[in-house]
Specification:
alpha/beta; Rossmann fold; 4 domains; ten-stranded mixed sheet; six-stranded parallel sheet; 29 helices; globular; Agluc_phsphrylas; carbohydrate metabolism; EC 2.4.1.1; Glycogen/Maltodextrin_Phosph
Amino acid sequence: MRVKQFLVLPKVPDRLKPLQEMANNLWYSWNWDIVRLFIRLDADMWEACYQNPVEMLSRLPQEALEKAAQDEAFLVSLDKIYQKYRDYLARKKWFHYKYGNLESRTVAYFSLEYGLDTGLPTYSGGLGVLSGDTLKSASDVGIPLVAVGLLYRYGYFKQTLSTDGWQQERYDENDWYHMPVELVKNEDDQPLRVSADLDGTPVQMQVWKVQVGLIPLYLLDTNIPENSSKAREITGMLYGGDKDMRIRQEIVLGIGGVRALKALKINADIFHCNEGHSWFLTLERLRVLMQEHGMSFSEASNYVWTTSVFTTHTPVPAGNERFDPVLVHRYLGDFVKQLGISWKDFLSLGRVNPSDESESFCMTVAALKYAASCNGVSKLHQRVSQEMWHNIWPNLPRAEVPIKGITNGVHISSWVSHDMSDLYESYFGPRYTERPGAPEVWDRVERIPDIELWRVHTRRRERLIFFARKRLVQQMARRSSTQLEMHEVESALDPQALTIGFARRFSTYKRGYLLFSDPARLEKIVNNDKFPVQVILAGKAHPLDTPGKEIIKKIVTLAAEPRFRQRIIFVEDYDINVARYLVQGVDVWLNTPRRPEEASGTSGMKAALNGAINFSILDGWWDEAYTDEVGFRIGSRDDLPNADLQDKLEAEALYNTLERQVVPLFYQRNGRDYPEDWTAMMKASILMAGKKFSAQRMVMDYTDVFYVPSIRAAAELSTNDFALNREVTGWLDKISSSWDRISIRDIRVPDVGPTVKLGQKIPVTLKVYLDSITPDDVRVEIISGRLSSQENLDTMSSVVARLTDKSSVPSDGVYEFTGEVTCQESGRFGVTARIVPQNEHLLHTKKPKLISWW
């Protein structure tokens, strides 16, 4: 049967056209005023449409729209909000004032998922929500950025629990024509399409656009009639299918994404891979530079390296994306031939040890090798990543592995409740509305009277309890529970009791079971008559993660016991909407990962901004945020080799801290109507999170540390048809070919005796053989520090040595360099030296194998 298709659009009155315009920009998702307008139109419809304004406008009866168009009060509010929206789009922002001459440049940001709002299900969890917060914050500060991802037919799964607590998955098909998404058209008013060959078959992709404030997000879609059924499934599910499906998704994202930007006439200067999923974009960039600009593979590689940013989020080796070389060859063998390199050389790009043919192809390794700018997502994660990947740079000390630390942040306007936001605006002033991520704004938190802060927080806790009860009733009804059981859950939880929140992906390393490891002790804590405690949990396990599902089942089964039924509940189908209610309403945010396996975590930041107190393992962001003034810690920074012992000790620490510190402080009222000391900790926590952990701060860090230096370096390298890039690549090739022949022949220090004084300076002379390399091409460094028992340097400080004679070239190729070191620590002290390349046109010269030690 053939069907003639039409797209029927809602007939929105002209007077409501501004409302329709704003409904198609995700700006609405972080502006409560416009959300309130939609709720005024029909509150029940708003919830029924999953807070999707585009669908709501299409489903509202025409008479409701006409009535709103005649409602003077509604129109006054609409005009005011629309003016705010237009001002936001037009206002000059941070990037303009700091880097105005670079506003014509573009950063392309690639991610496999984006968590922007409940009504746009293109995310599964933390990685996607971080990507969404990145786009919103880039818009807030005016960074010239475009984003690329995939449009999933089904998105991530909807979670329900069976009567015995086992997770069940349901996949709902997304109706993109009723979402804030627009199909991109070409000059002929036809869908814009690009293609890529997969296993010898061309796969067509159409492009959809989501507008996020000022930032366009382009999503690729293979579900079109011209494709085979196998190709149409590529953008079917997020994180669905096997490795074969995964590699096809990542080729579409990477190679297809670069081609889509070209078709859109967007000439991106910098490419940022958020995780290794999109690394295949590198291959398309290399191909274009070689075929369209006549570069060699080495020349193209240097330019791509200079203009690539890579963010790793995974702190354990097993969590990094790896593919069997046979599978990679199936889909990319022909493509690699276009790059003019052997298959062996290509595989070496994704291997820590290039000569190990048994090693699989790792996307993270390839991304680290091909990006001059790499980072972990917290200070602790930076150190973990440097340790995990130091074998890529085997001669570098761990602390110098070129992976920086840019700690994640959250988009404040998306996560702070409207009640709390109104309070902040009252005491922080208008600058909070314009730039809530500005650190200096948060110093004014002390101006808020304690009782006002407590009342607002209490109101949000009450709303959370009512929301949780409503969801619990819906869950029970779906399981065909009895009327008596339904009646019981309607009174579950106490709006005035200490409320703990725990919500995240249920993976084993997150240890969702830790709070429940001693049920008898937990029973005493939650059912204390004078000081009751209650726990609200939420989260999904990956469909293939059976151990994660077992944890959920264990918790749900325990919570169903009569002793816990009124105090512990599990809210199904964790999403952005559930997350907002939780972080905006709980008193305590609990996090129990196995250190150091939490790269960052951001849910605790969101809770802190709303006045919740973090109670967490010292992992991820909390390792750098924690002080006694802002929250509570579980355990210490000691990493135990025995997981069972670590679980036992940290469960004990959790219970002890909860009983002896958290609960008493919350209920300590001192004759007042509010907990004075607890409120002081709330203020300290808000100050800490607001000043240090906003996503605006995060994207400004990316801009200052990575984007702008890379943009400037690229501009320099690309002038005169990439003349300087060719010159620098030639220099690198020359250096690399001669590097194995250079050496430090000798280190000489004067006879100062067996002991020296703290602070004493010691002159050092070096004899350095450089073969055909000139002294200008290298930096010779004298390294000194405290010696370990194995006679390695525990600490290192470096001094650049000076060439003694610049006027002549020694006939034997041995140059003399001199310098001076200072004895900065007591104890055993050592001195060594090294040679590294030096070139002002490279962002850095920490290339694998290009370092020579004495």
